[in-house]
Amino acid sequence: MRSASLIGLATLAVACGGARESAAPPWIAEAPPGPDEPRAELVVRVDLEPSATCEEALDAILYRTRGVDLARWDAGGSRCRERTLRLRWLPRRTSEDAILGVLRKNTRSVEKGPPR
Amino acid sequence: MRGRRKLALAVLAIAFALPTAVAIRPALADEEEPDESEPEQKATRKGGPKGPALSPEELAKRRRKILDTLTTDENVLINVSTRELPASPDILNLGRRGAKALARCVSDNVDDGMRSACASMLAKIGDRAALPALQGALEAWDPHVRGAAIEALRAMPDPSSYPGLSKLLGREDEETSNRFLAVRALGALSYAPAVKDLRRMLREAPGDHGDLAVPAFEGIWRSRALLSRAALVDDVAFALRSGRRELVLPAAYASSELRAEGLVPALIPLMQNPDVRVRNRAVFALGKIGSPSATTALVAQIPKVRESRMLNNIAFALERLDPRSFYGTAKGLSEHKQASIRMNTAFVLGDVRRADGLGLLSKALGDQNDFVRVSAVAALGKLDTKEAAPIVERYLDDPNPSLREEAIYSAHALSGGKRSDLLFDKLYSSPRQDTKHRALLALSQAADPRVGPDLLACFENRQCPVDAVDAYVKKTKLEGAAGRLLIQWVRGRTELTELLGQLKPPGGAPLAMSAAEASLAHGDRRGTASALDLFADLGDTSGRARVLEVSKSESVRLRLHGLVAASRLGGVAEDAKIFAEIDNLAQIYLPHASTTLGHVAEPAVRARLLPEIERRKRAPDFAMRAAMANVHLAWDGEAGLPRVLELVGSKEGAERDLALRYLQRDRRAQTTWLLRRALAREGRPEVRDLLRRLVDARGPGQE
């Protein structure tokens, strides 16, 4: 982190400072899947519907499936074409076929497997 | 934001003006974070000698004595004058251990300059034990003392400060500048009765006591977690309609985060506002709100636009809201009689990246104006459609050099970065320096092995940024790079510390230690700290004792770097010392401590330190909570993010804003992916708004 950023944070820390006993927030974070829950990885090459936010839009759709644990994008390709997507998913909650189905429905093309 | 900050600084300047300003200057040598590498100029202090005349040596001795007893004798500052006061970095290095004496100084010293200086340092230390003294100082006779106390109370927001601040604001004879500060302090409290006052102040007309509506709105927005959405929308709409520029602009910013349809009627007239920032922010907010009424208003605005930025903002908003309407409008604009509008239209068509723009851009390539054609060919490169490739190919040998250059970059982009040869053959060999330089950066981004030596030379000549070298060297494992970069680091390019820590150049450890010792000898504490970080990265455990020796310092930050480095090199005994320092740390140094700890890379060391980090993620002090949550996030994004998100959802504005700032500064791709997941699954509307803002600001999640 650069010093300017640190100064900004430090200023904020002081400007906002304080040490109040925090009331417990009413909202409880969604518990992440336990460490013993099995994970699997699916790597696909996708062509997305071009837009300024194509990557993020597909993420939002995928996360509707609770069994999709994390979507990671490799650098390379164009912004929306020939992208490699690594999906970590939870076999107890969904299946690879179900995820591929979502991908086929929401992309221009899907090809399973690592980047060529 | 910048405007508000300027205004605040101006008010502060007034508040601390005249005699007090000179008197407290040494304690405020650096307003934000004291620079320990610069010795303070005690000789310039003009606080007016009180007591017998002292030689510079005697004065230095006296200050040293005060400093030495400051943590053990809470009365030590009561009879001290400003000229005898030790330098503020020295006092801040004592951390919370100095707070009692400073609080007694605020209460019991009769010198107003001293009282102000002590209050200002308490603000930086952030020890709540000082609240009673600071609240008492709200009744000081001297307005500067009251001003410093208000600022300190703002830095330590607590509902117990409300009565005193309220009483101060109720006095007819209070200074205008202090009233302004007091309203800001109320806004920091995140306390329902204060919010009620702020809402009343927002609606009051400016009077003899100045315009308090601006800090009142700032406070309302900061306390927004305490308000119902309807009340908040009502306040923002009021501010938008106020006709007061200082109020309208922050309200327009707030509108784009709130995204409430009820704000549309108040935003639409602002597209005609004389202030260009207000106009653009209103368009941006309307685009974010995205209702049909907003779309209609945006389309209706287009013929009235007279500037390119506004046009771009409208186009981007429409592209999201109503692509059909967008392309219809773009068609009209691409035939506009003004070339600058045609050029901007091409730019926007490229930036929205949809293949629908292909026809309009192809047509623009036939424009009479060269700038329009260059803009069009560059835009085609962004379209993400294979159909654009054969169109740009036609211009690869165009006689117009600008058109040719953009066509080459577009062809490269449309190939998914596979046309490096084109860049190399046609641009990299160019006699024009700017053309060659741009090609060098593009080829290095594509990890082209042919440009490695030139890239290193470019960096050595300070003409290429470290980011370009960092990515290239990691991808290509360029032979000899680590050694050459190490030489640059030794010459002072400390921006390379992190990269070298990963490259681990052979022979780096002895050099890093020598650099630490040399920096120390020259009083360069930052250089010393950076060298210790690198030494720890290089993992030479035999140097642990030397690390501790070099980091023996009055500077708490340097000591912390040394302790963390020693801990990383196997010094288990240093773990407890790290947390003892952190627990005593002045609040202003916590972000630095968070970064220093976040740098720990060794899994075994992280595992050793994590239980104490976890404990502090629930500390009573919110700045500590946020700093330690940020360390965990740096170490393990997935495990660390839930706590940071809890802080983002805090009802306390100070805690929420600090957590947001830490997240904004974490630019890693992994954090972007995690934030997108959090956004998709977030159930709280107000937290969704905040996460959306963070995700929008990050763009695609690539490193």
Per DSSP, the total helix count of chain B is 42
What is the global morphology of chain A?
Answer: elongated
Fraction of residues in helix of chain A: 25-40%
Oligomer: heterodimer
Shape of chain B: globular
Low-confidence stretches of chain A: 10-25
In angstroms, what is the radius of gyration of chain A? 20 Å
Compute the average pLDDT of chain A. Answer: 78
User: Helix/strand-derived class of chain B?
Assistant: mainly alpha
What is the CATH superfamily of the domain at 36-114 in chain A?
Ribosomal protein S6/Translation elongation factor EF1B
**DSSP helical segment count of chain A:** 3
Largest sheet of chain A: 4 strands, antiparallel
CATH class descriptor of the domain at 36-114 in chain A: Alpha Beta
* Span between termini of chain B: 28 Å
Secondary structure class of chain A reads alpha+beta
CATH architecture of the domain at 36-114 in chain A: 2-Layer Sandwich
Please state how the strands of the largest beta sheet of chain A are arranged side by side.
2-3-1-4
Order of helices and strands of chain A: HEHEEHE
Distance from N terminus to C terminus of chain A (CA atoms, Å) equals 36 Å
Instruction: Note poorly predicted spans of chain B.
Output: 1-49
Biggest chain contact: A-B, 48 and 80 residues
Description of the structure:
- The complex is a heterodimer of chains A (116) and B (703).
- Chain A has a domain at 36-114: Ribosomal protein S6/Translation elongation factor EF1B (Alpha-Beta Plaits, 2-Layer Sandwich).
- In chain A, 29% of the residues lie in helices and 22% in strands.
- Chain A has helices spanning 3-16, 54-62, 96-106; strands at residues 40-47, 68-73, 83-89, 109-112.
- Chain A has a four-stranded antiparallel beta sheet with strand order 2-3-1-4, with helices on one face.
- Chain A is elongated and about 35 Å long.
- The two termini of chain A are 36 Å apart.
- The model of chain A is unreliable at 10-25 (pLDDT under 50).
- Chain B has 703 residues and is mainly alpha-helical.
- Among the domains of chain B are: 419-465, no CATH class; 480-583, no CATH class; 585-703, no CATH class.
- Chain B is built from 42 helices and no strands.
- The two termini of chain B are 28 Å apart.
- At the A-B interface, helix 1, helix 2 and strand 2 of A face helix 36, helix 38, helix 39, helix 40 and helix 41 of B.
